[in-house]
Specification:
CATH topology: TIM Barrel
Strand content: 35-45%
Number of domains: 1
Shape: globular
CATH superfamily: Metal-dependent hydrolases
Helix content: 10-25%
CATH class: Alpha Beta
Distance between the termini: 35 Å
Largest sheet: 19 strands, mixed
């Protein structure tokens, strides 16, 4: 289903931008991942295998736009760190994995996009494969954005001992709550510096066949994860079904931060909008607004929740309901967080990209 955003004649689509196949460490191939995305009701999926760009796979599968990127890291680095999602580049970029700034520069030369993956990742003590893989080289410049919410990265933080791990595997929705506070603080610090940093949210799906005793029930399959944390994008027109027309449009929305991150399992987030107006000028998520007097912010949600408006990381307005309106005259990066009660807990639901007010 397509939904037109209130702010402009923009079309809202749902994307997941981080998944793996057996070409690296996943368990399903490209067409199977796209089929899982179709079952989950999302329109775009990007496969990002580690240090390999698999050619000849892009196109439409079961109505889903399947794109291919790359998750780049230096396999020689111990302990592991600095994973970077790269999109819209037609050659492998892993040769520059050991030099993060050079990597970002080379991506930018090719008009690609770069997002720092699971930037504040934490470890689980249960297995070496659950080690922390954070981003450490924060002096780099030129990245498009950060992966604000990575489902499997968050899940890993709850796997502290065997009983908790079993409970979390059986009932993951009791645990998932939102992006880490460290990641949110890091994002806000970057925004407060005046930098434009787009946020995305993803599954980091591998389809790992964890099995539960005699039931032999696999968990965290692709379709389930694609119903959880996603990136909602606002594109200029409906998807046409043609790769060459739709791919640039999707990546342009991603580059500009036109959208928001949502935990769709806690409530379908389609229809959320966040706009700002000053005089005759108006901006939406990812946009810049030059003040002409006061700025009027408007937030609209498809369901009730606790809505918070933040400026440079500091809360400036809070309201429970489906809407929030706020008047301000201060410059800064304004973004929205929305929380909902789900599975007995107030959980993160929507995290908008900023509107940059100057």
């Amino acid at each position: 289903m397509l939904l037109y955003n209130r702010a402009r004649l923009m079309v809202e689509i749902i994307a997941n931008l981080h998944a793996h196949t057996p070409y690296s460490d996943g368990h399903a191939y490209h067409h199977e991942i796209a089929q899982a995305a179709a079952r989950a009701g999302i329109q775009v999926v990007v496969v990002t295998d580690h240090n390999v760009l698999v050619g000849g796979k892009e196109g439409y599968v079961d109505g889903v736009l399947l794109l291919v990127g790359e998750e780049i890291h230096d396999p020689r680095r111990r302990p592991q760190a600095n994973h970077c999602l790269v999109f819209n580049v037609d050659q492998e970029m892993c040769r520059w994995a050991s030099h993060p700034q050079r990597l970002l520069d080379e991506v930018n030369k090719r008009a690609g996009l770069s997002f720092l993956a699971h930037p504040c990742d934490e470890a689980s003590p249960l297995d070496i494969d659950l080690s922390a893989i954070p981003w450490l080289d924060w002096d780099v410049r030129g990245f498009t954005g950060i992966e604000l919410w990575n489902y499997m990265s968050e899940f890993k933080t709850y796997v502290k001992n065997v009983p908790t791990a079993l409970l979390a595997i059986l009932f993951p929705s009791l645990f998932i709550r939102g992006p880490s506070k460290a990641t949110l603080r890091r994002w806000d610090a970057l925004l407060a510096e005046g930098r434009r940093v787009a946020a995305i949210g993803n599954a980091d799906a591998h389809g790992t066949p964890i099995r539960l005793g005699l039931l032999a029930k696999p968990v965290f399959d692709y379709a389930y994860l694609f119903r959880c944390v996603n990136t909602h994008l606002l594109i200029e027109r409906p998807l046409s079904g043609e790769l060459e027309k739709d791919k640039p449009m999707v990546y342009q929305a991603l580059r500009e931060g036109r959208g928001f991150v949502a935990y769709d399992l806690a409530g379908a987030a389609r229809g959320f909008s966040f706009t700002a107006r000053s005089g005759a000028a108006q901006a939406e998520m990812g946009g810049q607004l030059q003040r002409h007097g006061a700025v009027r912010f408007a937030v609209r949600c498809p369901r009730s929740g606790l809505i918070a408006l933040l400026r440079n990381g500091q809360r400036v307005a809070l309201r429970f309901g489906k809407a929030l309106n706020h008047l301000s005259s201060e410059p800064g990066a304004y973004r929205v967080e929305v929380y909902r009660f789900f599975r007995g807990w107030l959980r993160g639901w929507i995290y908008s990209n900023p509107i940059y007010v100057t």
